[in-house]
TrEMBL record:
Domain of life: Bacteria
Broad EC category: oxidoreductase
Protein name from the UniProt record: NADPH:quinone reductase
GO MF term (any one): quinone reductase (NADPH) activity
One Pfam family in the UniProt entry: ADH_zinc_N
Keywords: Oxidoreductase
Ranges for domain Enoyl reductase (ER): 46-353
EC number per UniProt: 1.6.5.5
InterPro entries named among the record's database cross-references: ADH-like_C, ADH-like_N, ER, GroES-like_sf, NAD(P)-bd_dom_sf, Zn-ADH-like_protein
Length: 358
């Protein structure tokens, strides 16, 4: 018996069969929205040149979901990816974006999720679009108490902060934490998560406006970047237990000077642009250490890791103790402006792109 597959121009997806006697007709009801809008990187020439284009709407495979994107979070890796400067390279052209929230629109075979689930996902690329494909291992359910806007701002920053503080540092209640870039997306996540874990948090910022923003987050102490070493020493004469540093540059040496004996400097990135170096005798003489924090290298190599982390912090998320401060929300079509604002170092909290919205 022959099998013929027809494509029917229907606005829902599914499959029906009909027995004609001699021939089985299999009719796929194809969604009328065969294309979608997405932000594409077609040349590595910076944020100004990303393009808002029509691309084919993807179909989920086994263990995957199709998410109708509500919001996508803008992260610093996107700034670097538009210039080809990020450590993870993608072949051109590609759809930009690392994280998003939304509603499950379609599920692939054997997926743990259901159509209609409220979720957030971290995929490394592809989230600056009206729809995205995410594997079950990279997707988490969003509590009803959390808005989809807030959820879009959590995956990259909050999971990185959790990996730094809970896993790499093994931070305990009552210990002290200094956070550089505390008003930015990653820094503010570290401030909130540190406070939720019972740490005393010193937030380092570059302006008085940013100082106001981190005070609203509840930071225990706030100091300006200019002169942060002396200001921190006045608060903690013996030094702090941990320094959380996504900035690098010329702050690095003074960061080692504010550490208490057995303190740890957590290196998360170099938004200042300069990769610093250190004379290792300083580590020897003070009994301090410098620890690399590469969350992605662990998460992508362990299929259950993101879910394990999400379970560990879910109580804080659901209770609102971890709740991103939204700096600005741009329409998807204005992704270039959103990325440029992040690149300008003026952001206080999280920048989002809105696709379908709440």
């Amino acid at each position: 018996m022959s099998v013929i597959t027809l494509i029917a121009p229907r606005c829902d997806r599914g499959e029906k069969t009909a027995d004609t006697g001699a021939v089985w007709l299999r009719v796929r009801q194809n969604d009328c929205e065969e294309t979608m809008k997405a932000i594409r990187v077609t040349a590595l020439t910076g944020p100004d040149d990303v393009e808002h284009l029509d691309v084919e709407r993807p179909v989920p495979g086994p263990g995957q979901v199709l998410i109708k994107v509500a919001f996508a979070g803008v992260t610093f890796p996107e700034v670097l990816q538009t210039r080809g400067m990020y450590q993870v390279k993608h072949d051109l052209p590609f759809t930009l974006g690392s994280e998003a929230s939304g509603i499950v629109a379609e599920v692939g075979p054997d997926s743990r999720y259901s159509v209609g689930d409220r979720v957030a996902a971290i995929t490394g690329k592809g989230t600056f679009a009206e729809y995205l494909i995410a594997g079950d291992e990279a997707t988490v359910k969003v509590p009803d108490s959390v808005s989809l806007a807030a959820a879009a701002g959590m995956p990259m920053n909050v999971l990185t902060a959790d990996f730094a503080l809970r896993v790499r540092a093994n931070a305990q209640p009552g210990q002290s934490l200094l956070v550089h870039g505390a008003a930015g997306g990653l820094g503010s996540a570290a401030v909130q998560l540190g406070l939720a874990m019972g740490l005393e948090v010193v937030a380092v910022v570059s302006t008085e406006a940013k100082a106001k923003a981190v005070r609203e987050l509840g930071a225990t102490h706030v100091v300006l970047a200019d002169g942060f070493k002396d200001a921190t020493k006045e608060i903690y004469p013996k030094g702090v237990d941990f320094v959380f540093d996504p900035v690098g540059g010329d702050r690095f040496t003074d960061s080692t000077r504010v550490l208490a004996p057995f303190g740890r400097l957590l290196v998360l990135g170099f938004t200042a642009g300069e990769i610093p170096s250190i004379k290792v005798n300083r580590l020897l003489l003070k009994n301090i250490s410098v620890d690399g924090v590469a969350w992605g290298g662990v998460a992508w190599g362990h299929p259950t890791y993101i879910h394990e982390q999400w379970d560990a912090i879910l109580e804080h998320v659901a209770a609102g103790r971890v709740n991103p401060r939204i700096h600005a929300t741009y329409p998807l079509a204005e992704a270039s402006s959103a990325i440029n604002e992040l690149d300008g170092r003026s952001v206080m909290g999280k920048v989002l792109l809105e696709a379908a919205g709440e």
